[in-house]
Design goal:
The protein has helices at about 5-15, 15-25, 45-60, 65-75, 80-115, 125-130, and strands spanning about 35, 40. By secondary structure, it is mainly α. A hairpin with a 5-residue loop joins strand 1 and strand 2.
Length: about 140
Amino acid sequence: MKKITIGEAARRSGVKVPTVRYYESIGLLAAPSRSEGNQRSFEPADISRLAFIRHARELGFEIEAIRTLLTLQDDPNQSCASADAIAKARLVEVEQRIRSLTALKAELETMVEGCGRGRVDQCRVIEVLADHGQCTHSHH
């Protein structure tokens, strides 16, 4: 079976070459074998692992959560309770972020609607940004 170069591994998995090296350096990806010329040689399983990591990162999972998920994936006969707990925790984070963004959207809409389109000294946007106490919603 032909070994896969780092460039090809990156292309197939959708992960950039420096990111492949980073995942290797932090232990999410095992160090691949090396050719006689000291080039990394990847296996199809490495490509699958890189794609898994990329997808998890796209969904916003933190590196340590991904590390745990990979450990679970490596032992498929165990309970999926840990994986479920990690996904549920991520869902809670997303729901909190949505609430925060919804409040932020409402605040920005209020600022824009209050704009008199006059001079800056009468601008509601500038006024609210200068005095957080004028915000109608609590947000981060």
